[in-house]
Design brief:
The chain is mostly helical and 515 residues long. The chain has 2 domains: 2-431, no CATH class; 443-515, no CATH class. The chain is built from 20 helices and no strands. It starts with a helix and ends with a helix. The model is unreliable at 1-5 and 506-515 (pLDDT under 50).
Length: 515
């Protein structure tokens, strides 16, 4: 019972953190889109994507392996300290090599030199990140600390962005502010980590046992990064102006937030899944998988429905563009990118759960590696085909839309493969009566959203509200009404998450009456 309560508390804390960070993101990102404008947003996004590849190389899969190994010895401070010291040395060496390699590439490729200043500013992220020890806190399940620290750092970041970023030339200031979040986080971690580990060497390091899993996880990390960043990277070459990159980044922003919520919950479930599997407690392991899948469906499915229905007002609020009569410039294809990629919120999130909570604890990462290698190759091919050749033949399609179609198709095929190889553990977690209740609830939300969304905007516009205010009111009222119907329906049919909350509240009221 204690384990279950701890997991539930960690989930709640993590969701609160993600929601606060989402709110901050919806404050800063629209500000950036308005003041940096699409060309500079595109340049920043492309530079960040380039750096991300070398960030993954610097990590070489260490964080995932470190979490799994540290969880097993977290009750023994001496053994935990030994593990942490070993992984830190490995990451420090890999970071230096990665930075040297990135520098060589920047000065060797003429096409990259124009963004070299941005690249080197953003590369501070992974140099400083080597000293962050974030994986230690994930293994120790220090969710409250990580949440408070992240909220403070990103709130400070949001304030600085609003104060100092006011023209397209401020893109470098924005890059320094973004890097500053990592620096503040790392400083806080360095002070706090000493409470749990010692940096004094007392045992020899066992580097040999990490060679094989690190080889797989390093390759996997690079492939995942390629897969995640390929769309933006290819768009940068397909569109010299980088405006399509900006449209794509606006369209995918809301999707990234929902995926981030589910991925953030992995910091709760991965160490607990590794713990249960290591203890050979299959009942708790399976229950944890079902619980996390339940949360995924509960959050992601209504997000898909509402974002698809409210694509234009969402992208308008982010970018500041309320005119989508043309498909050229000014983030005009962003709403279509959002609609096309909506399914990714579910497919990518389920894939992340299967990898982090099933394949990783079981040391079966190679299956995910095979999936991601195939997916990356397919995504590159489809993105070039649909974003380059097909988009040029049809007036109604832009490169950003073509790349979005390629990514969505690839992600759908990937989740089919991952479900098939993990069928034994996921069939009851995915295909059950409770999931059906959520699906029906979202059909109700879809019908309501389609019915009231446009009339609501017309109402607020008729009253005389500004475009931005009318869009906000349209979104808020549509989501609010849909959420009420969704939660009421799930309560009536006794959906697991909603009904457990109602039942817990009733039990508390009964106890207070008896006392």
């Amino acid at each position: 019972m204690c384990m279950k309560n701890d997991t539930r508390i960690n989930v709640i804390v993590n969701i609160i953190r993600t929601l606060v960070l989402t709110l901050l993101s919806f404050i800063t990102f629209p500000w950036i889109c308005r003041y940096l404008q699409d060309s500079m947003v595109g340049a920043y996004t492309w530079a960040n994507t380039f750096v991300a590849y070398f960030l993954i190389l610097a990590k070489i899969g260490i964080p995932n392996l470190a979490v799994r190994e540290c969880v097993r010895v977290r009750d023994d401070k001496e053994k935990l300290s030994n593990k942490v010291q070993g992984f830190f040395l490995l990451q420090l060496i890999s970071t230096v090599i990665s930075f040297a390699l990135m520098t060589a590439v920047v000065f060797s490729v003429p096409a990259i030199r124009d963004t070299s200043a941005l690249i080197f500013i953003l590369s501070i992220n992974f140099i400083v990140g080597a000293f962050s020890f974030e994986w230690v806190f994930i293994a120790l399940e220090k969710q409250f600390y990580m949440s408070v620290r992240s909220i403070v750092a990103l709130t400070l970041c949001a304030i600085l962005v609003i104060v100092f970023v006011t023209t397209p030339a401020d893109v470098y200031i924005y890059a320094f502010i973004a890097v500053g979040v990592t620096v503040v986080t790392t400083i806080a971690n360095l002070f706090y980590v000493r409470k749990f580990i010692s940096f004094k060497k007392t045992m020899p390091y066992s580097f040999k046992e990490y060679v094989k899993p690190l080889a797989i996880l390093c390759t996997l990390s690079l492939v995942i990064s390629l897969y995640n960043q390929t769309d933006t990277f290819i768009l940068g070459f397909l569109d010299k102006s980088k405006q399509e990159v900006a449209s794509y980044s606006v369209g995918i922003k809301g999707i990234d937030i929902i995926i981030g919520i589910i991925a953030g919950l992995s910091t709760v479930f991965i160490p607990r899944a590794a713990y249960y599997y290591g203890k050979e407690d299959k009942r708790f392991f399976n229950n944890l998988t079902k619980y996390s899948m339940n949360i995924c469906f509960f959050i992601v499915m209504p997000a898909i429905v509402t974002m698809a229905c409210l694509a234009k007002p969402i992208c308008s609020l982010i970018s500041g563009n309320f005119d989508y009569s043309s498909l050229t410039g000014n983030y005009s294809s962003a709403p279509w990118v959002l609609v096309i990629l909506c399914s990714m919120m579910l497919t990518y999130s389920l894939g992340d759960i299967i990898y982090g909570q099933i394949l990783l604890p079981m040391k079966k990462e190679k299956y995910y590696l095979i999936a991601m290698l195939s997916g990356t190759a397919l995504n590159v091919g489809l993105s070039i085909l649909l974003g380059g050749f097909v988009a040029n033949k049809f007036d109604w399609m832009t490169p950003a839309m073509g790349v979005a179609f390629g990514t969505a198709i690839t992600d759908l095929l990937l989740i089919i493969f991952l479900v098939s190889i993990s069928w034994k553990w996921v069939k009851k977690a995915i295909f059950n009566l409770n999931t059906l209740k959520i699906v029906i609830g979202n059909l109700i939300v879809l019908a309501i959203s389609l019915l009231i969304s446009k009339p609501l905007y017309m109402l607020w516009d008729y009253i005389g509200l500004a475009n931005s205010v009318a869009a906000i009111m349209q979104m808020v009222t549509t989501v609010f009404v849909g959420a009420i119907f969704y939660l009421v329906f799930l309560g009536i049919v006794k959906e697991d998450l909603v009904y457990s909350f109602i039942r817990k509240k009733d039990l508390k009221e009964e106890d207070s009456v008896q006392q």
